[in-house]
Please model this.
Amino acid sequence: MSRYLLGRAAQSVLAVFGVMTIVFVIMRLSGDPTLLLVPEGATREQIDALRAQLGFDRPIAVQYADYLWTLGRLDLGQSVVQRLPVWRIVGERIPYTAWLASTALAFSVGIGIPVGVATAVWRGTLVERALMPLVLVGQSMPTFWSGILLIMLFGVGLGWLPTSGADDWRAVIMPAVALGGLSMATFARITRTAVMEELGKDYVRAIRAKGVAQPVVVIRHVLRNGAVPIVTIAALEIANLLAGAVIVETVFAWPGMGQLAVQSIQARDFLVVQAIVLLVSVSYVLLNFAADMLYGVIDPRIRLRGGPR
Amino acid sequence: MSLGAAALAQVKDTLSVDLPGQPATLDPHIQWDTDSYHVYRNIFDNLITRDPSGKIVPQVASAWTYRTPTEIEFTIRTDIKFHDGSALTPEDVVFSVKRITDPAFKSPQLTQFNSIIDARVAGPDKVLLVTEKPYPVLLAQLVKLSIVPKAHVEKVGAEKFNLEPMGSGPYKFAGWQRGVRVTLEANDAYWRGKPAIRTVTFQNVADEATRIANLKSGRADITRAISPDQAQALKSEARLKLLPVPTERVGFLFINAQWGPGTDLRVRRAIAHAIDRKLIVDALYGGFATPVDVVLTPANFGYVSGIPSYPFDPVRARALVKEAGAEGAEVVFGTSPAYDQRLVQALQQMLQEVGLKVTIRMTDHPTFLRRRQGNPDEAGSISTGLWSCGCQDADGVINPLFRTGSTWAKYSNPKFDAAIDAARATIDDAERLKHYADALRILYEDVPGVGMFQYHAIYASRREVQWQPTAGESFAVFDMKWQN
Amino acid sequence: MSRIRAALSAPGTLAIAPFALLLLVFTLMALLAPVLAPLDPARQSLLARLRPPGSMAGGITFWLGTDELGRDLLSRVIHGARASLAVALLSVIVSGILGTALGVLAGYRRGWVEVAIMRAVDVMLSIPAILLAIITVAVLGPGFLNLVLVLGFTRWPRYTRVAYAQTLGQAGLPYVTAARLAGARMPRLLLRHILPNIAAPLVVVATLEFGLMILFEAGLSFLGLGIQPPTPSWGSIMSTGRNYVGTAWWIATFPGICLFLLVLSVNICGDHLRDRFDPRATIR
Model:
């Protein structure tokens, strides 16, 4: 068990390291921020001088070594655009990202799972045909479009919700709906599959035969046993939510990491981008890990084992 | 007056501003992008400033005289206090100049001020600035120099100062929730009087459609960067109003004279003849732009009327293309999402109608800048530009755009270089104008670029906001008030 | 392939018929765009900008109105189907082939090949795909081909996971051993024997990815990094059109409806296929 954990940890560190390297190299290939920083009339000498001062004239390998050295001292570096430590810039976004992602997840799980159960239980009936397209709606529209429709309707037209920003709990509703809509169908699908599989098993037939009511069967037995795949997907889906947030946050002016990531890529603020990618990939690894651990809790039959999944 | 009437008559005293970007820094000596400037120009006073008509007028400096063409002496007001109550002194002015011109500070604005080789206190209320050579644009550049408190900056350090800036301006820094908003509070001890608006918040709202939704729902009171089409639509909103202002930004078409079909002068002239400025300004910009014939706006010093130009004449343009043997020649139109894509595509069609084959090459903005400022063979054949030097002087426009050796120039003419160099070497305005007239005439002959229009900045606000925006795109909340 | 035929004749197929028909309609629209479109989609008329649906100008009727440059929206929507469908289809093909090849290889060869490929999958999955796409487009520049490459090279891990798991399941089966003993060489074995038996779940992944890719292209257009103008795609028309949502609602609405119906149809048909095949295999 502990050997397995150690192996997993080592592989995860390697994976995160790989991610960082890939992003570092591609980002550097895309140029540097010097031209964005200088006033429009700067001469070539002045541009070159600033570039040298900022250290972007050095070979990529040297810059990379320098970056690793900074990371080694548990420092994320300093943003050349904002002239502030990166941890501060990114750190201030984390609560907002967590807030939006968790609300969106709650929304998509809250609708996705019941729909999944319903479509499995009433398979082939009108219920299924009516519900499935409904959850697919959120996954069939670009968020920049569904987002502005929500704003026009609930923000401007009806005046129920704030049109943008992140001031109170009401502000999170629309971005969470737009974002959560992307994952709703995934949860519905996975729940439906899991429930259908369980419903076909002998033990369910046996319980039913004893006259236990259908809802009790589903909630007590079926969902509990079908929870493993749902938890796996939830872990993966959080990573997807972080990515989907890139556009949703721009539309709703939500101060999370997604918007910061886009702005930092456009500003070639390398170290901020690196920090965000680091954070996202570490949380991806941790979430997957947590999901694996949860399996054991949900279903003790599952034994953790080494080797690739 | 009864209490009820007084309550009714109470005027709103907060202002909520939506900006498309968040300020990159609030230390006025680092970033100078439009959104940062919109915020921090309210926290700081500048050495000198411009009045609504564009004239350079006193602010921290009450008067100035040229001692010699390279030495200029400023008289500093003695009644200005920083927000912590300390007095603004000539030492603070000298410190501010030295700070921004210190190469080790790595200020991106360095190039605007590095003609200054020395700054020193020359009396209890005097500061002397020394330039390497006579530099006629110095005053226009100093309009952008914010004065920071020496003692405070030295005490708290650069990082803390950037997080919690303190100046002598009409508003005090009150808080910065990064990515969300910056809050400023009125400085009642301000030397020009109490600001009418007590609290200002600047929100970061990237998406124009969302900014407009915020205005309509009352979440924001004023916003900037409204596009002409949205402005047309907002005209019918009873609770809102538009505040358009002609700026010093010039919309122009760059033509690469050192690579591609543009190396042939006839092709460059054909391109100039093919552009229908009137149609662009009337149909595309709905009048929120003013046609110009040169790559300068009337808001710039050095704008001379009477320079010849190429009228819209597609027949002549087609003939020139044919004459140059450039029919169907591929013209690479470099652009980025930072530019108005309607204009880009409209120009593409206009040029295709006179026989050129125009391919749009869209890249993200940093990549566009790298290519545009790279070698002639990377820069593309044409691209649109929206240029402002923030100094309202021809020196900041046609010099970087067309002078031999500039990163932007894909063109070289020693006669043009000589004319603008001469205009830069004297502080005599009449003589400078004469040189710029020569320079503009050479540009007319050679066509390394075509001036199209003077850009109008469009703000939109609640109807009750009283304010007149300026050509320099400076956002002085001190000049705003609510009208009941 | 017999399983696919069986799936199509299974009960419930009737329910998806309208959606399958829609897919066919959109495909035909893309293929026949030059014939179907009443006008040149790039033809501007600056004096007839932002005209509502059904308006006439210069003797031409603009059935769906005109866009911000006075171009015929109907023609642009019809032509837009081409770019949207082509980007999605090609990127699914690129990522599908790449991902499947790697997955089958990992599942069959085992050993260090397996470890290397599956760790690479972990790396790719832990970078948000849209961020990687934005960064890569920044380097390569936008444009049709680059878009296909970027999407193709960021989305392959989904296929790899499925192909890998499926191949593991097949590799030990008697028919594979028999084929190997009969002297089949590896490429032949993988292509002729294993691949046909694991194709079904991969097709399901591909359908779901197809819908996602259409949205991805739209998202990149919104960030200004989509197909090069003036070529229309639904995503690019919508992202400009959304700015006009209060004034010229038609610009974004019509391509929006098309895109919505297309992705919805793809998803519903995909779900249907998934139900017919082993559903467990395609969880992710």
Q: What stands out?
A: Residues 54 and 253 of chain C are 15 Å apart (CA to CA). Chain C touches chain B at residues 42, 44, 46-47, 49-50, 68-69, 137-139, 141-143, 223-225, 228-230, 240, 242-247 (CB under 8 Å). The beta strands of chain C are 55-57, 60-62.
